[in-house]
Amino acid sequence: MSHSLKPARVRFAPSPTGRMHLGSARTALYDYLLARKTGGQFILRIEDTDRRRFVPGAEEELMQGLRWLGLNWDEGPDVGGPYGPYRQLERKEIYQEYALQLIESGHAYTCFCTPERLEKLRQEQQKRKENSHYDGTCRALAPQEAAARVAAGERHVIRFKMPRQGSTTVHDRLRGDITVENRNMDDYILVKSDGLALYHLAHVVDDHLMKITHVIRGSEWLPTFPLHALIHRAFGWEEPEFVHLSVFLKPSGKGKMSKRESADLIKDGYSIYVKDLETLGYLPEAVVNWIALMGWSYDDHTEFFTMDDLIEKFSLDRLNPSPAAINFAKFDHFNGLHIRNLEIPDLANRLRPFFEARGYLVDDARLLKVAPIIQERLVTLEDAPEIAGFFFQDVIQSPAAEDLTAKGLTPKESAEVARQMLVLLESQPEMTANLVEPVLRSLVEQLGLSPGQVFGILRAAVTGQKISPPLFESMEIIGKQKVIERLRSAIQVLERAGDG
RNA sequence: GCCCCCAUCGUCUAGCGGCCCAGGACGUGGCCCUCUCAAGGCCAAAACAGGGAUUCGAAUUCCCUUGGGGGCACCA
Known about the structure:
By secondary structure, the protein is mostly helical.
């Protein structure tokens, strides 16, 4: 039973170096689901130790994205928490302290090699087609000598003293045991010469101090996973459970999305950036449902999930280790499903800004009537203005004669049909669908024409569009006065065309 | 080049030795419904990368090949 699961403390630890994309959104989602499912905590930690790559505004977009998706954190830089601070830049001294501890215990050493020397070394190794790695020059330095040089103010970094022999076995929740030969791993730098810790050290220290139970992250960390385990072990700390998620591939399935391709996507109305999805008219519910299923499944047929469903049903056991190609067609499908799942007032509220963005003056009472008749016709919220913008226009542009002419009829004949409809409609007290539809249907029968021919003329006349929401319901919303007015002007257009 | 990971329809996936001549979904094609467009319903085409091995029996276990992905920074 799920009740027996221990409360998990799970962190989402992005670096503020770019935009929030679908891949990080999925990681955050799984973090959140595990925390909520087990009654644990979802923690947001900002990994900003690389000041050079810092992008202003990235952290804000990230937080907005998480909130939009409904992934609210229990501890984080803005809300605080018992294990703060939650920005790594503010934890600099903590890492230094632990790095020193590693040196004292013989698991790390100071290195005085210059970047220039290292670069030269790399080039030589590459020339010899060798695996590029640190050659261990400073590893042999006597601790006293190293300490003296540090005291003298010499620039240095701190490196992990990777065992030269043997192998390291780590455990990934999705892939089981992974064993690597230690000689294939490097003496990775733990602390830079500016005194700031690198990811490898910082996250291990933080995860331990913050009592993280599960580390869910991208598979790009798999190669350095053994290093991280070794650091935990060097401190004598218990390792959290590690879950490495595979990357998202581009729609073709061939390789991951490049910056260029990501930018090109927007032309087709898609994006891998969470913030763009909102403006493109996608629902956070749909994003969550869609990305949850890229790498996780519940069973062999259930696909529609709300956040509550996911919290109830999510399990690490049903994660899939293979990479998944992003499929926007399926995303559209999910968005449609979730739009149709919305209550009308909710849908109306979400629709309003999309009408307004196109310059329509939205009347709330009318919007409430429009929402239900376009609900099942929307792929995205952004589709609404095109389908139903005319409801919020006092005057529509008169359709061209050819658009008002029924298939198989001349403009003149179409005008005659329109005149007959006008007479019938004028005699109706109001334009309710219940009243109008039977009357018009009997006219269709009487004329011996098809419903498509007759209603096509009316549709174009009243909505100004060849494609529209259901005609009679639309007429009801538009009201008798406007319907009559527009039908009259359509008749005029047709008559003029008939004369010519 | 070296190291690591992955491998079922075009795509997302179910499958954890017999229930599978492989199930669901998106997309595609057809039909039905129908005032247009949708939504909905029905039907169809569509996959276990290849080769060995284990086993009475393999999509499911093991090995190799191939393919794909990731990593090899004083980035995360």
